[in-house]
Amino acid sequence: MGEFADKFACEKLYRQRAYLGSLLPSYIKSGNLGKYYEKLADFNFLMAKIQHPDFGVQALIDDFDLVDDSEALSHPEYNPEKVEALNLIQAALWKSADILTLDKTQLAEQLLGRLLHFNIPAIQGMAEVAKQWKAAPWLRPLTSCLTPPRRGLLRTLKGHTGFVNAVAVTADGKRAISGSEDETLKVWSLTTGKEQFTLKGHSSSVKAFAVTADGKRAISGSMDNTLKVWDLTTGKEEFTLKGHTSYVNAVAVTADGKRVISGSMDNTLKVWDLTTGKEQFTLNGHTGFVKAVAVTADGKRAISGSIDKTLKVWDLTTGKDQFTLNGHSSYVNAIAVTADGKRVISGSRDNTLKVWDLTTGKEQFTLNGHTSSVNSVAVTADGKRAVSGSDDNTLKVWDLTTGKEQFTLKSHSISVKAVAVTADGKRAISSSYDDPLQVWDLTTGKELFTLNSHSSYVNAVAVTGDGKRAISGSDDTTLKVWDLTTGKEQFTLNGHTSSVKAVAVTADGKRAISSSRSYHNTLPVWALTTGAVTADGKWAISNSDDNTLKVWDLTTGKEQFTLNGHTGFVKAVAVTADGKRAISGSIDKTLKVWDLTTGKEQFTLNGHTSSVKAVAVTADGKRAISGSDDNTLKVWDLTTGKEQFTLKSHSLSVKAVAVTADGKRAISGSWDNTLKVWDLTTHIPHPQLAHTRIEEVKVNHPR
Description:
This protein is mainly beta. About 15% of the residues lie in helices and about 40% in strands. It has a four-stranded antiparallel β-sheet. A four-stranded antiparallel β-sheet has the order 2-3-4-5, with no helix packed on it. A four-stranded antiparallel β-sheet has the order 6-7-8-9, with no helix packed on it. The longest helix is centred in the N-terminal third of the chain and has 23 residues, at about 5-30. The model is unreliable at about 1-10, about 15-25, about 445-450, about 455-460, about 515-530 and about 685-703 (pLDDT under 50).
């Protein structure tokens, strides 16, 4: 229990925290910067802070900003290594904030899961203390199994029940507003990650909206053909703007907050007076739907983008078209204007962005890099960078001085549909059809490293036992071997003529086995997504859509025998530690236990009422645990072939199963977005990971 078993010791830590916060400036001036470093790398202090009812996770995160590193550079106790450690701890807390808000007891597993592989003394010292924490049951990671810090993503905002189509940020950077297919808008605190309130009133999807510069009002556009003006102080609707004859796709507001410009599928834009709620005039000229609109900071001009492939620059004093910007070869989906009103950046379905000079109407340069339609774009307040979101599931940060890409932000699993940037240029908020909003750190935009080289989707990845190399398989028909120390590609394995769907690695880390639909019956040594390799690395067992499994000799590369018996696709396979038996799961709702010495079926495990998608075996080889589309797991006795019990709690298909080395617990992953930890002794779900999300441990399954 340490200090946490003693109430008075805990209270002392609380008081120390307050003392630290109030006297920090004097600490620094008097030469106690080292004390600051020490406190924020102290696991017991971190735990005390988040558990204190007056503080919590966000207050702890804010502690790391009490010292400006640039001001501390000249301090005699300035320590770059310790600063690096604090930056990593803070970034890990950002990533874990939504989880820790729900369950503070997960601090140890979150920090260990994200920081264990950083070989920094302050990090490792904190980790050693965290490992000893015993105030509540928890699942201790043995490796860095969660997304590490510096992967860009800060936090995820959840609450909408439909796709998020639009997002905006208040000028002070404190709140984000999102619009969704669920017909609502939500106002979020970017400080706490909490939803402040929901704006209800539209009768169809919210497609676009804008926020006034003072952050007091939001204007939303909907598929119900109307705009609504909302009071962001009260969350109440002020009035509705009616006039468009089709969906409102785009909304922008002038800097003085007096006028709003809307773009519609009726091919027009309308300029509205926000004081009276009346239409001032209609801007006609586009020959296709208006997809995007932006306004210059002085409120004198609006720029619109259309499916007619053009942008138009409008004089908002006269309502006249000043000039047309031609150059895109497909729809213009997104527009942003620099704060000085001199340039506009457009994103298009032609996969590019273009930077235009608004004085001359000329194109300055094209930003190439996205591999699919660009759906959104935002510009930092200083006009130096643009952030774009694309159907290629990524965001890209661009240097507008050079026209070069700075870095790519990856986390979304589906198209990025909207992006906004805080006024200080330090954070971006993006939305995607994968539902959550995501908050990114634009200061570094750094990952530990990105393994970039495949030219198409990566379908599978395996890591060698020593953790030094990863092997990835892709739709680009190749496998790549990566050095996990440097993040560099070592070499490419060519030979497949179709998508590589799966990869496995032998226990000695010397061989990889890949699978591709192109090989069918004449495969190199391979295993499918749920294929397996025996512990001694001598055999591989692959499962296939032809209802069979094949056993391969990895010494000769020859097929030993085929395991026939299933009447449907084989979706999962596991091998006992002694390499003598394999257990397979199929869409025929059964599992089969095979003797790998003879190639014969020992018995069939019946009980699931839908496809079996996952299977794992205990280390002693006595039990198998299966996961199914019937939303359950079943525990089987491999001695008798009988079902021992069923584990019920998931609300959707169980897609992944793992077992702890001692065989006492099973961990299941489901399409209900949760992991569950089960006690295989009493088969009661473990409570501590009830809110842990699949994506946090990178168990992502496409539906």
